[in-house]
Design a protein that fits this description.
The first copy, chain A, has 267 residues and is α/β, with parallel strands linked by helices. Chain A is built from ten helices and twelve strands. In chain A, strands 3-2-4-1-5 form a five-stranded parallel β-sheet, with helices on both faces. Chain A has a five-stranded mixed β-sheet with strand order 6-7-12-10-11. A two-stranded antiparallel sheet of chain A has the order 8-9. The longest helix of chain A has 15 residues. The model of chain A has no long low-confidence stretch (mean pLDDT 95).
Chain lengths: 267, 267
């Protein structure tokens, strides 16, 4: 049967897949995977191939972007084809064009969703989902942009939290660190003077969300800058107004200093 | 070993669990589950018990809220205890207090994240994640609130999309319909006259996100009001400014009318 199934790999390793995802992969004719939109350092390809009884074919950015996913679409025309994508397949916008191209070529598509970094970080932080504003990605310094600062400023105006995803450079597997991300924001602060990010702004750094040993550290920017988060991947939350219960969660699970209790009275 | 593991069940049925979640459940001493924060009509408890080889104990809202999760915390003190929660365990804020209570009672906790409705709806819609503003829940008419309208208005001011979760009433398993949700918004529009939600506002209704047969319908409010979405659960997106690629995705996968192409020139 002609079919292309986009499957989310979830986070961390091959055990992040759902039972449904494994079942569909087991019955596929051809199985492709990409690892360039996100890096999964703990994903054991051999173990996964044993689990699903299929050989994995890795697709590069070139395969998908320059050659418009020809290998994948050609396989899907011949039989049930699975395309494994880190996290959830369409939270990054990269593969939407591919799904539209499949439709144009009359290939039916389905999605098996996976655990996404977006909901995982919010869940792990103990902050309230409905208090997050727009999400932003902080790029490497050579792609320096004022957008992250402006998004944080806009969210703060409404008391909303900002989830900052930190950029990843592939194929080098180079991760932007929490320190580098904050330094970029401070640099824009120095220029704009809007008191959005200063050394005393509360922030929450998160390393290895979705892994067995995530590390969270809530504190003031000056503390987060010097904190050792260990191995990547990293994310950062700049909170807006904090609810009493959010502060208690940060004290219990994110090493927040007791001074965080006084943030509840801030405007 | 004294331990409480919060595990996300993911969406739809018992196959929505990750391999990691199943592995941890298999090796638990005691397994609890709650189904009141979200309804999983296709979850087959007997099949799940066979899969994990454990007997499931269902916890009610009373067990968790009035009795502060005593059953669960007492079990966790005696040995490895798993608590299964629909979606991701902490995207609803309900169980954060329980995790804090566990910590106060010196019970170590861990989280195995699951596929969340939040990322799933965004992924399914083909809209761009970083263009969503604050999320809101639309309550039943007897809990009528102007908040959803105001959140949509605030997001629209910045061109941002609004994800509207529609309320669920338990234990009756009563779902707010997309029609009822829109009617509430139109009622507030009638009073406020801010031209936020009118019969010609674009909207996207989504039924059964995360199931095998989700239905998406993009159109103008007047069309969405009369569309038959079939069985629940339901969600609604009120888009802000639409990018060219977002419109193409809605045309390909959400039955959007061709008139949507002209939205790209709107402010």
């Amino acid at each position: 049967m002609t079919e292309l199934i986009f499957i989310g790999l979830g986070l961390n390793d091959e055990k992040g897949l759902t039972l449904k995802a494994l079942e569909e992969t087991k019955t596929a004719n051809t199985v492709f995977m990409e690892t360039y939109t996100n890096h999964m350092p703990n994903f054991n390809i051999e173990h996964f191939e044993t689990l699903c009884g299929k050989k994995l074919q890795i697709l590069t950015r070139k395969d998908l972007e320059e050659e418009n996913g020809k290998k994948l679409l050609d396989a899907a025309k011949k039989g049930k084809t699975v395309f494994l994508v880190p996290g959830d397949p369409f939270i990054a916008t990269t593969h939407i064009t591919l799904r539209i191209d499949a439709k144009k070529q009359k290939i039916p598509t389905r999605i098996i969703h996976g655990t996404s970094i977006i909901s995982t970080i919010i869940s792990l932080s103990g902050l309230h989902n409905y208090k997050f504003g727009k999400t932003v990605t902080i790029p490497f310094a050579d792609n320096f942009s004022e957008t992250p600062y402006n998004v944080i400023a806009q969210n703060q105006k409404f008391g909303l939290h900002t989830l900052c995803l930190l950029d990843l450079r592939q194929p080098e597997n180079k991760y932007l660190s929490i320190k580098e991300a904050i330094e970029q924001l401070l640099k824009i602060e120095e220029k704009k003077h809007q008191t959005i990010i200063t050394s005393t702004t509360p922030a929450i750094g998160i390393a290895r969300a979705g892994n067995d040993n995530p590390v969270l550290k809530a504190g003031f920017v000056k503390d987060i800058l010097t904190f050792d988060f260990g191995a990547p991947p990293f994310s950062l939350i700049i909170p807006g107004e904090l609810h009493f219960m959010e502060i208690e969660a940060l004290l219990a699970f994110a090493q927040a200093p007791l001074e965080f209790r006084s943030l509840i009275n801030e405007p």
